[in-house]
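Reviewer comment 2.1 asked that we show a complete input and output for one of the modelled complexes. We chose the magnesium ion case, as it is the one discussed in the main text.
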Amino acid sequence: MKPKGTKNSFTSPVINEMSLKLPSLSVNEGMARAAIAAFCSQLDPLPVEIADIKCAVSEAVTNCIVHGYKERVGTIYITVKLCNEGIVRIEIKDKGCGIEDVRQARQPLYTTDAENERSGMGFTVMESFCDKVRVYSKCGKGTTVTLFKKLQGK
Ligand SMILES: Nc1ncnc2c1ncn2[C@@H]1O[C@H](COP(=O)(O)OP(=O)(O)O)[C@@H](O)[C@H]1O
Ligand SMILES: [Mg+2]
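Response of the prediction step:
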């Protein structure tokens, strides 16, 4: 737990921004991960911070592909904002099936796809590699996951 008063509100002004729109094909998971890592590298992150970002992005994009759109191919919308004080905000959005109960979906080990050997640890991974994870979802409309990370020493 961070001491009271030190919690970052992640509202620093944006200094650079990138948008990416990709079909929900599994080959694009690696593409999204690499593109976002390359864009974030201008903030001169530590190698471990880039690895954290890649892992979290990977989980969020995979969820759009396997859960959001399932068998069909839809579009994944990604926005990356680099902000003052080394704050990175990554928004990953799909217009797929949505999540009925976000609180339940975020529980460790919860999965609706156990038959495909999913671990149910995607949101937990995102939370452990980022400083904050925001999930907004509406059934039948889609899901938006926003990952916030503050790079150290910035
Ligand atoms: N983009 C999404 N669209 C629809 N459902 C989702 C999405 N992301 C996550 N979910 C739901 O939340 C559950 C938990 O996700 P996660 O923690 O990544 O575990 P896993 O992907 O292994 O099931 C999924 O099983 C799924 O039901
Ligand atoms: Mg997952």
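The pocket of magnesium ion (ligand 2) is lined by residues 59, 62-63, 122 (CB under 6 Å). We note this here for comparison with the apo prediction described in Section 3.2.
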